[in-house]
Design a protein that fits this description.
This protein is an alpha+beta fold. It has helices at residues 3-72, 74-77, 121-124, 129-138, 144-156, 162-178, 182-194, 196-199, 208-221, 225-235, 247-265, 271-304, 333-336, 347-360, 399-474, 481-513, 525-542, 562-578, 624-629, 637-647, and strands at residues 95-102, 107-109, 312-314, 322-328, 338-346, 368-371, 380-385, 393-398, 521-523, 546-550, 558-560, 585-592, 596-603, 651-657, 661-669. It is built from 20 helices and 15 strands. It is rod-shaped and about 185 Å long.
């Protein structure tokens, strides 16, 4: 089968293998990428399923804590105990500040003292006629003295309840203030505050705190700043006196009024006032959350007549990390006057307790219970909420932890995809290398075939001439001694040609086997070059070539193998003659440039294309122009030249243009200190 057909078959098989390999690797890569891409969804679904189980266990945990907490305040919630039990105070307890709501809306508990007696009826009755007349007269256009006498008479009348007598005196103090008599008003306020613990204990108005604020305003109108601070600070001791229904509102009103008054006077609040204000701010979310239960959730629950056996949860104060667990108590409304009870939930401690429970359940710590805060949605991944009363809580983890877990889950697929790509590239690369090696071997095989054919032709031609001449001489068919000598010269010349060809083949076989050795000695190459050129000169002239010689009688000595140099020189001469037109011109030169001993052979032959100037030194290689010319050759001449020059640590240089000829130069390195031949000796 022709070599070209074999190459086509082999290349078809290799390209088919490459396509199949790429297809399989692409399919594997696609499946790996799909699994890599879908891993985020798969991991999230897995996490959500597991988190749902954890959420159910956490709800059970909260219910157990809830049950224990409500059992601890059962007596207080049903009215059997006056004061609530103290908060556990343990880190795992997130319930605190028990409270109960009475049917009149009064909130008891929240660490405030309970009221020991009911509201006095005199405080809630209809104002007496004497009081109403005196107050109406105080706001009329009557003379001041008449107004004063009317209010004093009402405040001293024993038939009027004490609460209304106190209010008459408070109205009298306000009358003095309106008529620019602050001293008289101060005296009245001081007298009322002196007996405040007993006389104002059950009064809804005025309370001791209200009287303290009014007295401070009276003192400020007199410019007595220091006394103002003392009165306002002393008023803090009265702030929780009286009915507790609106205690928080009263406390807030008093502190706001105090701060505004001090600000108007350019005074700084005392330490006691600052501490009271800080406590108020801390307690405000709790009060608002409990009031929401009292005013909105509890009436709605009682109206619906729902189940009162299980607690409810309110997250009105979730923004302040406050929750309320509460429960209606309709069964005891008529007997104890209580319609609901509950406890405050510390959200931070609840979260801490739930996360501790997660660790107890075997969670490694990457998952955590978090609050569903819109401000943190970009930094948290939530899997499943606790649901029910605990919709504000969910199990999740930070995005950093999620990315780590996702990266760990994706890593095997990324590695598999990378290995698949590397394997595919390796296989394709191996097949391409195999294809290149196969093409090279096939080309080498083709060139060897051509080499055998060319060498056979090269051997046949001189043998035929030798046989022809020898037979002619043998049968004495030559007339004349001169003709006889001519036949002897042909036999001798063709024998040399045959010997040179066989020498090339043998030398190449030794080089190819790695057995070629060179005898390098310090030598003047001028005689060798001249003798070789003289021996070949007859063949040059017979083919009508002109040869210009420029080799001096002596050249700088170099380390060289004379036989090898002569062979390289002859190979270049033969190529110059073989690939030049008839009656061509040769120029042979030898000289030194100080670094190298240079021997060049120039011709005006067919030249060598630039893209082939690197390949002509390869074994068996012949240019396309040489093959088209029909000239026989072995393809070993220049390969031997290149090997010989490498063995001499020299260089082979080439300058050539297609159609203009070529110049080959052999460059032998000079030893250090070797002088150049004088120009006259050349």
């Amino acid at each position: 089968m022709p070599v070209r057909n074999k190459i086509r078959i082999y290349e078809t098989a290799i390209w088919g293998s490459i396509i199949v390999c790429l297809g399989l690797c692409s399919l594997g890569g696609y499946l790996t990428y799909k699994q890599y891409r879908d891993m985020e969804v798969l991991l999230f679904v897995s996490e959500r399923s597991y988190s749902s189980t954890l959420a159910s266990q956490l709800r059970s945990h909260i219910r157990k804590r809830e049950k224990d907490a409500f059992q601890s305040i059962e007596a207080f919630a049903l009215g059997d105990a006056k004061d609530p039990p103290p908060s556990p105070g343990t880190p795992e307890s997130f319930f605190e500040l028990p409270f109960r709501i009475r049917t009149n809306g009064e909130i008891e508990g929240l660490d405030q003292p309970a009221r020991t007696t009911p509201f006095p009826s005199s405080d809630t009755g209809v104002p007496p006629a004497e009081y109403r007349q005196a107050v109406r007269l105080s706001h009329s256009q009557a003379p001041l003295a008449r107004k004063v006498r009317s209010l004093e008479a009402a405040s001293n009348r024993t038939s009027i309840p004490e609460a209304w007598r106190i209010r008459a005196r408070t109205q009298l103090a306000a009358l003095y203030n309106r008529h620019d008599q602050p001293a008289a008003a101060e005296s009245i306020y001081a007298g009322l505050l002196k007996n405040a613990p007993s006389s104002l204990a059950y009064s809804a108005w005025p309370t001791p705190a209200q009287l303290s604020l009014a007295m401070a305003e009276t003192l400020s109108s007199q410019g007595r700043k220091k006394a103002v601070q003392e009165v306002l600070t002393r008023g803090l001791s009265f702030i929780d006196s009286g009915p507790q229904k609106n205690g928080f509102v009263r406390r807030e009103s008093y502190l706001q009024g105090s701060m505004q008054l001090l600000q108007n006077l350019g005074l700084s609040p005392t330490r006691e006032l600052n501490e009271a204000l800080q406590k108020l701010d801390a307690r405000k979310p709790i009060q608002l959350a409990v009031k929401h239960v009292r005013d909105v959730l509890l009436p709605r629950e009682l109206a619906a007549r729902g189940d009162s056996s299980s607690p409810r949860w309110s997250w009105r104060g979730i923004g302040s990390k406050v929750g309320v667990a509460w429960q209606p108590t309709p069964a005891v409304v008529d007997t104890a006057g209580i319609k609901g009870a509950g406890m405050i939930v510390d959200v931070e401690r609840l979260l801490s307790d739930l996360n501790s429970e997660l660790l107890r359940l075997g969670e490694s710590g990457s998952r955590q219970v978090v609050l569903l805060d819109p401000a943190r949605k970009d930094s948290m991944i939530t899997y499943d909420g606790l649901g029910g009363n605990f919709g504000w809580f969910a199990i999740g983890q930070t995005k950093e932890e999620w990315e780590k877990r996702l990266g760990a889950a994706r890593r095997p697929f990324a590695i598999a995809g990378l290995l698949s790509g590397i394997l595919g590239l390796t296989l394709v690369g191996g097949l391409l290398v195999l294809r290149q090696a196969m093409r090279k071997e096939m080309n080498l095989s083709r060139m060897k075939t051509e080499f055998v054919a060319n060498v056979s032709h090269e051997l046949k031609t001189p043998l035929s001439l030798i046989k022809l001449c020898s037979e002619t001489l043998q049968f004495d068919r030559v007339q004349g001694e001169e003709k006889r000598q001519e036949y002897f010269e042909v036999i001798n010349r063709e024998s040399d040609r045959l010997g040179h060809l066989i020498g090339n083949v043998l030398n190449f076989s030794r080089i190819d086997a790695g057995k070629k050795n060179y005898d390098l000695k310090k030598t003047d190459l001028a005689p060798v070059l001249n003798q070789t050129l003289d021996a070949y000169f007859l063949q040059i002239t017979e083919q009508d070539f002109s040869c210009t010689r420029d080799i001096p009688a002596s050249l700088p000595a170099v380390l060289a193998d004379e036989e090898a140099v002569a062979q390289a020189f002859i190979n270049l001469l033969q190529n110059a003659v073989r690939y030049s037109p008839e009656k061509g011109d040769l120029t042979v030169r030898g000289w030194s440039d100080g670094r190298f001993l240079l021997v060049s052979i120039a011709d005006n032959g067919i030249g060598i294309a630039e893209e082939e100037q690197q390949r002509i030194w390869d074994d068996y290689y012949r240019t396309a122009e040489a093959r088209a010319l029909g000239t026989r050759g072995s393809g070993l001449g220049l390969s031997l030249v290149s090997h010989i020059m490498r063995a001499h640590e020299g260089e082979t240089r080439l300058r050539s243009k297609p159609g203009e000829g070529s110049e080959f130069t052999l460059a032998f390195p000079l030893e250090t200190g070797t002088e150049m031949e004088p120009e006259d000796d050349r």
